[in-house]
């Protein structure tokens, strides 16, 4: 194995390219306020809503940092708090219609971008690449 370039550097370049495209496209579609850090909320929020502590643990950031992201998204109309039926003292944050539409748009943008990678590698090799990433990420 060559030790010239760390595998993580390649992965970072792919992630940076994906994120740059996503946020340029989101801005072009009228969502310039959305930053890469907000993406983690849209990626991991459950359909039935999530607690801030759950999101923070999933992303690997502090509760305070996740709170700041969630409160911004709430202020902008992408999330809404609901009482947690399992614990009325807790809040679940749920996607609003605007938030669900943004998540759908983001997923579509990413799929289109990933199709470029699939064309470059060939569909079968790209699907194998995705499977390798899934296995390594577990």
UniProtKB/TrEMBL annotation:
A Pfam family matched in the record: MarR_2
Gene Ontology biological process terms, A to Z = response to stress
- Is DNA-binding found in the keyword set? yes
> Which intervals hold domain HTH marR-type?
1-138
Q: Which organism is it from?
A: Hymenobacter jeollabukensis
Descriptive protein name: Winged helix-turn-helix transcriptional regulator
Keyword annotations from UniProtKB, A to Z: DNA-binding, Transcription, Transcription regulation
In its UniProt record, a GO molecular function of this protein is: DNA-binding transcription factor activity
* Coiled coil spans: none
**Mind telling me which PROSITE patterns this protein's record contains?**
HTH_MARR_1, HTH_MARR_2
């Amino acid at each position: 194995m060559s030790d010239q370039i760390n595998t993580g550097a390649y992965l970072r370049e792919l992630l940076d390219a994906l994120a740059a495209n996503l946020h340029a496209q989101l801005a072009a579609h009228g969502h310039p306020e959305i930053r890469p850090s907000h993406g983690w909320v849209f990626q991991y929020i459950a359909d039935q809503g999530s607690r801030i502590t759950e999101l923070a643990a999933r992303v690997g950031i502090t509760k305070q940092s996740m709170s700041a992201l969630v409160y911004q998204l709430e202020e902008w109309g992408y999330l809404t708090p609901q009482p947690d039926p399992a614990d009325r003292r807790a809040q679940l944050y749920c996607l609003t219609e605007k938030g669900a539409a943004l998540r759908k748009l983001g997923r579509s943008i990413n799929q289109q971008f990933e199709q470029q990678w699939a064309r470059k590698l060939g569909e079968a090799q790209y699907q194998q690449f995705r499977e390798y990433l899934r296995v390594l990420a577990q």
